[in-house]
Amino acid sequence: MAADGQNVNIPNAITIARIALVPLFVFLLLIAKDINSIERWAGIVVFVLAISTDGLDGAVARRTGKVTNLGKILDPIADKALLGGALLTLSYLGEIDWWITILILLREVAVTVYRVWVVRKDVIAATLAGKLKTIFQGVAIGAVLAPFEVWVPAWSFVEQGLLFIALGATLISGLQFFVAANKK
């Protein structure tokens, strides 16, 4: 952190809190006895709370003039930790096909590695396509987390459709990222 404390601010604290919620979320999913258990519902609440802070930290940072390079780095890490943790856990539990998780995580790792490599020269802020990708992933994961199939058996078709939309948005935004990065 900077010696002047510019990185110590509310938006960065919100982002760090999102990262801190990831282990709790994963733990709750893993100990859930079934998809309609209290532990599963608690995991859903933690996920919704964590994913909802994604827009909040950025909005607060822009509104208060507290946008920092640390925040630009931590925000995508927090997103990847939460969404990656959800994808891995849900695949482990058999609720999301592994191939979907692998493709999404390969894109995320490639973009993250590139960002870390470039950070020595410049911090690459999130783009609209990247933000939309995160929203689609969050909605798809939320749909899989919610035990709606208990009441609506056809819900699994909705889940699959949302996962395919999220996968498409993820791959397209990754392609856009690397095309734009190579133009610099």
Structural features, described:
This protein has one domain: Four Helix Bundle (Hemerythrin (Met), subunit A), CATH 1.20.120.1760. The chain is mainly alpha-helical and 184 residues long. It has helices spanning 10-31, 38-64, 69-92, 98-118, 128-145, 155-183. The two termini are 28 Å apart.
Q: What is the CATH topology descriptor?
A: Four Helix Bundle (Hemerythrin (Met), subunit A)
CATH class: Mainly Alpha
Please identify, by name, the CATH architecture: Up-down Bundle
Mean pLDDT across the residues is 89
Q: Strand-residue fraction? A: under 5%
Q: Characterize the largest beta sheet: strand count, sense, and whether it forms a barrel.
A: none
Sheet/helix structural class? mainly alpha
Topology, please?
Elements: H1 10-31, H2 38-64, H3 69-92, H4 98-118, H5 128-145, H6 155-183
Helix pairs in contact: 1-2, 1-3, 2-3, 3-4, 3-5, 4-6, 5-6
List keywords for this structure.
0% strand, mainly alpha, single chain, Four Helix Bundle (Hemerythrin (Met), subunit A), 6 helices, 184 residues
